[in-house]
Amino acid sequence: MDLKMDKKEKLMIETIEMHTGGEPLRIITSGYPEISGKTILEKRRYLKNNLDHIRRFLMLEPRGHFDQYGGLLVKPDHPEAHIAVIFMHNEGYSTMCGHAIFALGRFAVDYGYVKHPSREGEDGISYYNVNIQCPCGLVRAEVEVQNGKSGAVRFVSVPAFAVATDVKVPTEKYGTVVLDIGYGGAFYALIPDHALGLNVTESSLKTLIDAADHISNAVKKHIRIHHPEEDDLSFLYGTIITDGKDDFSDEMTSNLCVFANRQVDRCPTGSGVTARIAVQHAKSLIKLGDERVFENGITHSTFTGKAVEKTTCGSYDAVRVEVSGRAFYTGRSTFTCEDEDPLKNGFLLN
After folding, report:
1. Which of 161, 158, 212 lies closest to 189 in space, CA to CA?
2. Confidence of residue 248 (pLDDT cuts 50, 70, 90)
3. Which of 120, 142, 186, 197 has the most CB atoms around its CB within 10 Å?
4. Model confidence band, residue 250 (pLDDT cutoffs 50, 70, 90)
């Protein structure tokens, strides 16, 4: 579908630009046509089926790039939500995004969606609770504000669980590999770098991307991904290559997430950290309250995470995971297009 404009109704989309650990977030605040649907998942389906050309307009070049990430603000349908968001990327629409939660938490406080702190702490720090409705469910964040400036954010995940541990998956390039599959708001294959003959902090980025994409394709071919409560969530989002340091220790552990259409996360991946902790807990490698530091193997940005509560999701034993990080503003934008522009619909070079 081509973008169409006339003199009476021009497409003009306003955004706030942020990043978390180097991973961009384009918060889309206004300019979208009306989005049909009573629930957030119905709205997500409507976007996919009717307005996907605007996702391409905003995420792809020349306004975005291969690894651009966005969040469209929509009206919440959850009674406790302060804001609701639908995530988008180079391929389509994801179900959860931890790095976006850190950015959206600050945004919600700074732009008045949450006006009053929930509690006061030491050193003049106020804490604001921000409830963010995502396609995967309600995510509860807490934002620190000191001297009128928002800062660090932590969130508690939706129920996270291990789908399969130490499962054998045949691949064309690496033979049969052993990996885990975890859910942290989205489904990920988790595989240590040594199983692929790689090093997540030293191997070339292209080699890591190729390997992760190969694993994702193999898992999609051989393993059925199913969410116990919602079919719209039942798909593999990506593969996370780790350094294999899954036993609890004070040592930092590194990983790199490749998701969607070979898109590379610049941060440690909030939903991926959630999935890793859920799998580590399921394998009795960590206990509730064991806090770990997770590093992106390329940018070396870090998140912290810990399992804080046992719960269930359908038939799965699950945990809720608290993840902490920091997001920063980078600017604001107004995006338009001219009807005679031959590249107005966006393109990718990769």
Report:
1. 212
2. confident
3. 186
4. confident
What is the set of domains in the chain, with CATH numbers? Answer: 13-156+329-335 (3.10.310.10), 161-325 (3.10.310.10)
Q: Is 11 helix (H, G, I), strand (E, B) or coil?
A: coil
pLDDT in tens, 104-151: 999 999 999 999 999 998 889 999 999 999 999 999 999 999 999 999
Whole-angstrom distance, CA of residue 188 vs CA of residue 212: 11
Residue 266: left (phi > 0), alpha (psi -120 to 50), or beta? alpha
Contact 313, 343 (CB under 8 A): no
Q: For residue 215, how far is the Cα from the chain centroid?
A: 19
Measure Cα distances from 159 to 29, 214, 286 in Å: 28, 28, 17
Distances in whole angstroms, Cα of residue 81 to Cα of each of 76, 143, 180, 327: 6, 15, 32, 21
Angle at alpha carbon of residue 134, lines to 261 and 282, rounded to 5°: 80
pTM to 2 decimal places: 0.95
Catalytically annotated residue among 97, 134, 136, 337: 97
Residues in the chain: 350
State how far the alpha carbon of 68 is from the alpha carbons of 11, 27, 63, 261, 343, in Å. Answer: 20, 11, 9, 12, 17
DSSP H helices in 64-137: 98-110
Which amino acid is located at 235 in the chain? F
Clarify whether 97 is annotated catalytic: yes
SS3 at position 36: coil
Contact 324, 345 (CB under 8 A): no
Token pair recorded at residue 213: 């994409």
State the Cα–Cα distance between residues 56 and 37, nearest whole angstrom: 21
